Amino acid sequence: MSHRVLIVDDEAGIRQALKQVLEYEDLEVRVAASGGEAISLYSEFRPRLVFLDVKMAGLDGLETLSRLRDLDPLAQIVMISGHGTIATAVEATQRGAFDFLEKPLDTDRLLLTVRNALAHAELVGENARLREAAESRYAMVGSSPALDAVRELIAKVGPTAARVLVTGENGTGKELVARGLHEASPRRDQAFVEVNCAAIPSELIESELFGHMKGSFTGAFADRAGKFEQADGGTLFLDEVGDMSLSAQAKLLRVLQEGVVTRIGGSKSIQVDVRVLAATNKELESEIAEGRFREDLLYRLNVVPIEVPALRERLEDVPALVAHFAEQLAAGAGVPGKKFAPEAIDRLQGRAWPGNIRELRNAVERALILSPGKLVTSGDIDRLLPATDGAAISAATEAGRSQTFETFKQEAEKNFLAQKLREHDWNVSETARSLKMPRSNLYKKIERYGLTRESA
User: Fold this and answer.
1) What does 175-227 look like in DSSP terms, one character per residue?
2) What pLDDT is attached to residue 297?
3) Taking a C-beta distance cutoff of 8 angstroms, is the pair 280, 242 a contact?
4) CATH of the domain at 384
């Protein structure tokens, strides 16, 4: 399919000559005799490129340029004029024009501009698609009160320079919160650098964070910038910060206090401007008590705490999450696109999801791949996703008896926690560890639901 070009000029001879040249280059061309006509035609024709005369009766070219850019911020517009001045060219560029050509138009220059403008339009469009795909990938899906509370905190804290400690179980979406904070900040156009502290061996974490000099240790074959330098001007996200070695914690504390890093084997301090966000699924107060985490570092990181709710605390978001994952997987993972029957969604909402969002995504992918029909049914869910524990089964069974969804959700969580407490003989620490839940959170829920050894 040929590219579409719109020519806007109040001289019929100019319109016709340009149209002839461009159609010879296999471009689809439409013409307009005024700025008003161009604006009316633009939304219907959706051209890739516009040639726009500066001097026209009525709505002049510069004003038309501004209005077209309001209609389409990605519009590629080349201004043409027989009375061009440097001031006019500068103003056109400031308003978003791609280029400025003087009449009479030189054919070679014209065609070169066309090629460059269309190539630029392709690049801009691809960047927009990639950004849209990234935003979709890292979207926080759902409208539950628990998730809305997190969004409100992101909106308040994101624009500030405050450090944030994001807590929550594995698979709840702590990285999404960190990315949301970055996107809401003045640093959104700078780097977002992520470090998984649990995935890097303790002997390498300092090199990863702070960099190293050539020859500073075996395998250091060249100078290397660390993550702090890579994130300069942007955001550094320390995921699973509770797994960082004490030695690295001490150096991290110095960077947070002084804003400088020193590479391993180096003597020169490097100034960095980095906003640090951290996340953990551990209860850092317990880690401090057991000597595995520095208390002063916690105070530095935990300026604003954000706790991400577990999926079982926002089961009303399951339908939206299922639809989101089904669309995402069909678009980018080669998985067949299918719909989920309402009864299948009910089955998914009746589960406890100890693996949270990550487990739900895997379940959706499994159902899309292995279900035989074009519609994923409740039978497919029962067959493909074995019950994880008695609490999940009882919750699903009791779903129809709850008067409201909120009541059902609370009963499901209460039953799930009671089951887990029985499994661990009411050892709260062991139960919290198995659930990857901060112990303080579990105590709060035990108190909220009035759970006792006898009632459980």
Assistant:
1) HHHHHHHHHTSTTTTS-EEEEETTTS-HHHHHHHHH-B-TTSSTT--S-B--H
2) 96
3) yes
4) 1.10.8.60
Give 111-135 pLDDT, tens digit per residue. Answer: 999 999 999 888 887 776 666 555 5
* Torsion region of 142: left, alpha or beta (phi above 0 gives left; psi -120 to 50 gives alpha): left
End-to-end Cα, the chain, rounded Å: 67
Instruction: Report the amino acid identity of residue 43.
Output: S
- Domain membership flag for residue 255: yes
CA nearest 309: which of 403, 445, 418, 424? 445
Question: In this structure, are 224 and 292 located in the same domain?
Answer: yes
Instruction: Give the pTM.
Output: 0.63
* Tokens describing residue 195: 């470090």
Does 151 share its domain with 130? no
User: In the beta sheet, which residues pair with residue 261?
Assistant: 270
Clarify whether residues 149 and 127 are in a common domain.
no
What's the average model confidence in pLDDT over 162-169? 96
Residue type for 167, please?
T
Query: Could you write out the DSSP letters of every residue in 33-93?
Result: SSHHHHHHHHHHH--SEEEEESS-SSS-HHHHHHHHHHH-TT--EEEEESS--HHHHHHHH
**pLDDT for 88:** 84
Q: The dihedral of CA 226, 232, 236, 242: what is its sign? A: positive
Least confident interval from 301-310, 318-327, 392-401:
392-401
